[in-house]
Design a protein that fits this description.
Elements lengths: L5 E3 L6 E4 L3 H11 L6 E4 L16 H4 L9 E2 L12 E2 L21 H9 L7 H11 E3 L13 E3 L7 H12 L15 E4 L4 E2 L2 E2 L2 H9 L5 E4 L2 E9 L2 E9 L2 E6 L3 E4 L2 H11 L2 E2 L1 H7 L5 E2 L11 E8 L6 H5 L2 H14 L11 E5 L10 E6 L15 E8 L7 E3 L10 E3 L6 H18 L10 E4 L8 H8 E3 L31 E3 L14 H16 L1
Parallel strand pairs: 1-14, 2-3, 2-15, 3-11, 6-7, 15-26, 16-17
Antiparallel strand pairs: 4-5, 8-19, 9-10, 12-13, 13-14, 18-21, 18-24, 18-25, 19-20, 20-21, 22-23
Helix pairs in contact: 1-6, 1-13, 4-13, 11-12
Amino acid sequence: MIGSSVRSFSGDYDYVVVGAGSAGCVVANRLSANPAKKVLLLEAGGQDNWIWFHIPVGYLYAIGNPRCDWMFETTPQPGLNGRTLAYPRGKVVGGSSAINAMISMRGQAADYDAWRDSGLPGWGWEDVLPVFRQIEDHFLGESSVHGIGGEWRVEPPRVKWEILDAIREAAQQIGIPKTPDFNTGDNEGSGYFHVNQKAGRRWSAARGFLKPALKRNNLRLETGTLVETVTLDCGRATGLIFRQHGQRFTVKARAEVILCAGAIGSPQILQRSGIGPSSVLAQAGVEPRVVLPGVGANLQDHLQQRAVYKVSGTPTLNQTYYSVLGKATMGLDYAFRRRGPLTMAPSQLGIFARSDKSQARANIQFHVQPLSLDRFGQPLHRYSAITVAACNLRPTSRGSVRITAADPYAAPVIDPNYLDTDEDRRIAADAIRLTRHLMQQSALNRFKPQEAVPGESDGRDLSLIAGEIGTTIFHPVGTAKMGRTSDPMAVVNAQLRVRGVEGLRVIDASVMPQITSGNTNTPTIMIAARAASMIRD
């Protein structure tokens, strides 16, 4: 029951959308395009009015900053030798798209065909490709795989590094072809990542989708709002209870409540609302309303093994970072040309490869960077070095997210359960072998690469070494997965409606049944655009 301390929030709304991140910005844009529908968008974070949200290299200052990061942590991970990891998630208008790597990556056609073949009609590659094209404004122009005129700007990188060109040559020497475009349905090969930028500035979901739509009278954005629960009446979602400026409010939704709070946020809201596994709800002291075992389960993430190689005879960002002249040059290059290292995404060069010959398609993604550091949020190393990070694109380990209390301020328990399966441990070890093979090629001889991390193996099991250096690449998905009615762990159906609750949908990365083979932001935006079309239809 709603207590007397809860005030009614002003306004009448057809749709109440939770989360102004990658998905929520798209959903709010699309639904408010109908002037007859009123949309309220609630965001826990603040406005994206800090300069480092817009200068691409600003991720170095945003990740790990409570101004815009939820500052989550994982549980100690047995597969990572008991280490806990920082688990960044965006807490600002634009969500994680305001602080992420800006890499435009769809994944592989086979990813979506697997979704379709698991009993999810309308989610195969041929179904989603038109949506990818429709949202895009791609620098390559209009083609059978790319679109122009959409809100999601895609551009080439605006900086080059000699060492990265050489690594691409080394990849070719071990049989990995060069590719000009990772987003045609088959991303095997090496190339420079296309990025979500415009003229050297970050292009977040807020810039592309939300801000143009905020001119509409029927769309209202409220920041600093923390959602407690979805309100339910006779099996239907009727609205929300949320907190803002020290007060509690209730708001009604005539048509639907739509959760776009992400793979960590959405399952928390569902569980606080009494929707989830009975054991989790009982332990948190929440009365069960709808028992759905899959809420918070099926957590998947890309674990990367970040290898660091010292190099010589070529510049890396490490030297420039500590040089007064270098910093001045970078600043001037950006100020006058919008080019240079300040436009850099965290990774510039990508390589998609197979960990062994038995793989039917690429299952390893390399992120190669002309810099090195212990972890994001810490200074770059003082020696000249590069980072060659390899991740398993389709992990078989599954983790979970759960609440510990009904209090919305209580931190969730995030357990990615990394390297839990024999297959994941084997592929992690193979990824280290492949990294070393790549770095031993003659194309790199003049740079004298020397492995600093992990360093000599001394005959140790490489899967254990993978656990020592493994870290998240910030791609959590799957915690409210879509699935057929017969799947007991499915949380939403193919239209992203929550099972057992009318008027409630989840639209974000949490609905992915299996993680896509690459960076997950663009697939999340596609999901949001497709789902919004379903709602409007």
